[in-house]
Amino acid sequence: MGLPLLITSGIGASSAFAAPENSTSQVAGQIQQNFKDGNYIVVLKDAPVASYEGGVSGIAATKPAPGKKINKGDKNVKAYEAHLRKQQRAVASSQGVKIQKDYTVAINGFAAKLTAAQATELSKQKNVLTVAEDKQFAPDYSSTDFLGLSGKNGGWATQYGGTANAGKGTVVGVIDSGYRPDNAFLKGNPVKPLSGKATVGQPYLDKDGTIAMLKADGTTFKGECQVGEDFDGSACNDKVLSARYFADAFVGSIPEDERAPEEVISPVDVGSHGTHTASTAAGNYGVDLESAGRDFGKGSGIAPAAKLSVYKICWEDTDPDTGGCYTSASVAAIEQSILDGVDVLNYSISGNNNSIVDPVAIAFKNAAAAGIFVSASAGNSGPTPTTVNHASPWLTTVAASTFSNELMGTVELSDGTKYRGVSVMSSEVQDKPLVLSADAVAAGQEAADAALCLPNSLDPAKVTGKIVICDRGVNARAEKSVVVADAGGVGMVLVNISTGSEDSDVHAVPTVHISNPEIKTRVAANPSLTGSLIDHDTTGLPQTPLPQIAGFSSRGQTLAEGSDLLKPDLAAPGVNVLAGVVPEAYNGDSTGFMSGTSMAAPHVAGYAALMFSKYPTWSPSAVKSAMMTTSYDVLNNDGSKNLDNFATGAGEADPNKMTNPGLVYENDVNDWDALINGELDAKNVNLASYAVGSLVGDVTVTREVTALTKGTYVASANVPGVDVKVSPSTLKFAKAGEKKSFTVTFKNVSAATNKFTHGSLSWNYLGTGIGNSAGKGKAQFSVNSPVSVRPLAVAAPNLVEFSGASGKGSFDVLGGVTTNADLSVLGLAKGDVTPTGAKKPGEGAVIGSNSSTATKVVKVAEGTKTATFSVNADDANDDWDMLIVTPGNQVLQIATESASESTVINNPAPGTYYVIGNLYATNDNGAANATIEYVGLTGDAGNMTASPDPLALANGKTSTVNLAWDGLTEGNWYGSVILGDTGSAVGVKVAVGTNGAAVSTSNVKVYNQSDIDKLPKSSLKKS
Question: Pfam families from the xrefs (predicted)?
Fold first, then answer.
């Protein structure tokens, strides 16, 4: 969002425009962290070792050249690390902070325990990029057959040199919950000392006894088999070259009696997630697949010849709601992986959806700068919009798709009705009574709990010998079948009550998982019905189209960077994926099914290993581009193309076509740093996708492509309702490696406003001719990119400011459509002002008062259309921050470098608000005074007019709104001009002040109540 502009009476307008009320594009930059006492990661702005390109006197660049890795023993690396640690100590000591762990390779930062005040103060230092809580995140039949990799004509044979070479010379790092060393996917031979010259892809023992391997890119991987509990360090082999663990945050945060009894402080996996992801990405070829007593043939990892390096950061505790994957552990693992020399990182762990500068994202940026491809899971919060994780453009965010119709089961009722679902049962159930679980509630239990088949909720007298119909939700799916079995049930029908995936869990009783809740109505109407559970599809219905995006897969748009980045990037198999597991967690099986974007991401990590083995000099962004532009359509349930780019990204990645993309879009750390520093708009990052979060008038973006196949390419685009012009529209490349730039201009023609429209842009290859006759004929292949743009009706400033008891002023708006907008006015209303003060700066905020805090209690009335809250410093040299606790107990924290703070909430929830002024700094570290101010607008007060009414808007043209006001007395007056039904409103502030009062607030923040509802609950204490 643009900064508001102070406009004096009678003077022209601001060029800063805001998104409409139902837009989320501005939220990411506005909502600041509600700091509380706890563990944090502090990231400084200067580059770490992985991306440092010089600039410090006497220290040369440490960023590795293409095809090289960081040499930890290099004198410049050592000197620069010392420089960074000195810088970190200076930042920490400025607030009396003790550094717990420093980071110098993946990020320039440190982990520390901070008070709320320390976190706030550090976040405002000019050389600090971000201060982020050390959070716990959750770990978010062969798919290779579906992907066309297996078989004599499959991709392994035709594109990657056969299974013995598919991924050879590469190392995939898996940051997860560890691994099970004895799993068949991960077994290998002992590694022997080097005899003679190192060969690509052949591990050997170094002189110090450490496993090393010459990689395809000419560098050498070298890791460590770290000794730990139940792991003596001897289990690494010629498949798993290295295994490390990062337990400091877990051990420091979770008492031993709250850790899962099976958890071990070592690289060993106890829950299966890490084993599953590692074996999916690069598991051995030809492993026997068996689950729940059924034989599923043989399976392989995507890159069976690639090697693995395991980084355990996720830990099991006794709280099912915590994931145990700590931010500090993630950063440490990423840093170590860079030093070890991995080629690919898989990160099947959740993250945030509104920032590209959290510590993990910054660490991945510098991993990518070091040449590492990063695959990250999109998240499992779908189909809800704006839930996609991992917004950063330097990593590849992966959605989950379906890939198989083999795991079918059928519920057959005695009236002839059949319901198709998913099942892996090893034995069928024939002609048994049916009972709705809600009708089998045990004495003293709630029917709602019984409906969900929660523990102890079912009455054995009503369940024994029957098939029980249970609702999905609340407790684990597999636990429901245990509850049924414990009550004497012989089978279960698991029903999705709302949209959701059908999952192939191993159950305690034969089970079919269906998505048709109509079965409950049918059985309730005829309790005498019996049923059978069949282990295959008997419905005769057409096969479900493949692939489809899983219902659970998180959707865009991303809330980061004004939604000018398109996420997810692409899709891969993530539903009912069969891979390695921990037997103790899977009823003795060593292979098992899992679903999630966690399962999709390692497919893409495996693809990257295949690509780096074939093309070891390619950049991570080139590999990502090739995956995206050669992907194919994801389908809807009716077989039509899924047109929602926020579900599919570029589409389903195709490992057989990505080897020949024709053109690639490349970007590097210089682009990423420019983006972070505000020097490059997100929509202009050179990605193989296009996103414009605010389309008003003509919006032009620039791209550059590198030719891998010479010849002529002609552009075409289709974005419904939007005119797309590509210039030049024909690109002719005389040789591979040649680069050419082009622009793409978008303009809304007929698309609906304030919502995204999705389409695509393609470069169609017409052959090798580059003369005058080139550019004609049928395309041989296309380089395809997804396009998502959001047309707005108008772009307008958030706030305009004037002064004077009476006067005139104006502001400009930019039209996104051609229409007439009826103007309406709220206010002007005078703020309710409470004088206050604080004794000294530096103490954390509370609800109430302390030496640095004052609180005003505000009652926001029903029907209030806008609420403005301000903390106004009496002295412009002081620095006050503001926090607002809402009736829903959410908290907004507004902490900028300005003396005063202000925020506006559109359509606020009625009720009690606590407006807190917290004194951050004064010149003499002493007392300071301020006022806390509130005004709620409900209607036109008759003291301000807006003209012309209606306001004529024209697409791409500027229109001027003229204001006039009179009759104001001393103080701050607030109003709003609503621009018809465009969804936009412009805040108005008129200051009538004397005695040097600091009446101007230049850092107003504007929220919608829908944004407030997404904020975390307040942890502030009451004084």
Answer: fn3_6, Inhibitor_I9, PA, Peptidase_S8
